[in-house]
Structure formats: C-alpha cells, structure tokens
Amino acid sequence: MKTKKELKKEYGSMKFKIGVFQIKNIANNKIYIDRSVNLNKIWNRHQLELNYGMHRNLALQAEWNEFGESNFVFEILSEIKQADEQNTDYTKESKLLAKMFMKELQLFGKKGYN
Question: Per-residue DSSP letters for 31-82?
Fold first, then answer.
C-alpha cells in the first residue's frame, strides 16, 4: 500500500486537460466561456453550482433556472498542450486563451454571459 506522501507525489505528477470551454444555452444560443486547469472536472463543478443556485454568473444562473439543465451543453473549445517542464504557468496561459475567445466571439450582452 502506498503512503500518503507517495500518493500526493503521484497525484502531483498527473497531467490534466487544460484549456478553454463553453457552456452553451441551446435554447437561445447564448454562451458562457471560461477556462480551467482541469477540464475533466470543471463541468461537474459548474453543474453543481447551477443546480444549487449558487453560480457566480447571475445571468447564466437565471437562464439555467428558466430553461433547465437539458438546454445547456458543455463543450471544450481548446486544449493547451502541456510541456514536460514543471514551471509553465498554465493558469495564466488559459486565462489569455479564454480572453482571446471572448474577444473573437464577442460574447457580451445578448450574445453571451461573460
């Protein structure tokens, strides 16, 4: 059996999907764009927050309540390939990538939730 220290080290060396995603309201095509250093888990967090009425984006929360979960889809827009070096700031890189998507798609006001 592995020690707690060994398990932590093993977890720390795991590579997760990093990048930008969207939550799209298929009823009105409005989009929420965000980023994560763990794309495998982020949708679960957003679903939990939305289902409990605690999402930080109030407009998205209001329309989730109005249209229901079945009218929203989660899609990964872009992944960042991880380098073998340990000192890359993926949080910063993913923030920049998300800003690029928001600027390009102009998802403000009636087009989006950002």
Answer: EEEEEES-HHHHHHHHHHHHHTT--S-HHHHHHHHHH-GGGEEEEEEEEPPP
* Residue 20: Cβ within 10 Å count: 24
C-alpha span between 7 and 112 (Å, rounded): 41
Q: Which among 77, 71, 85, 75 is positioned nearest to 101, based on CA atoms?
A: 77
What span, in angstroms and rounded, lies between the C-alpha atoms of 77 and 59?
21
Instruction: Decide: 33 and 112 in contact? Cβ < 8 Å.
Output: yes
Distance (Å, rounded) from C-alpha 29 to C-alpha 95?
A: 23
Q: Are 19 and 80 in contact (CB under 8 A)?
A: yes
pLDDT (tens digit per residue) in 39-80: 999 999 999 999 999 999 999 999 999 999 999 999 999 999
The answer to whether residues 52 and 46 touch, using CB atoms and an 8 Å cutoff, is no
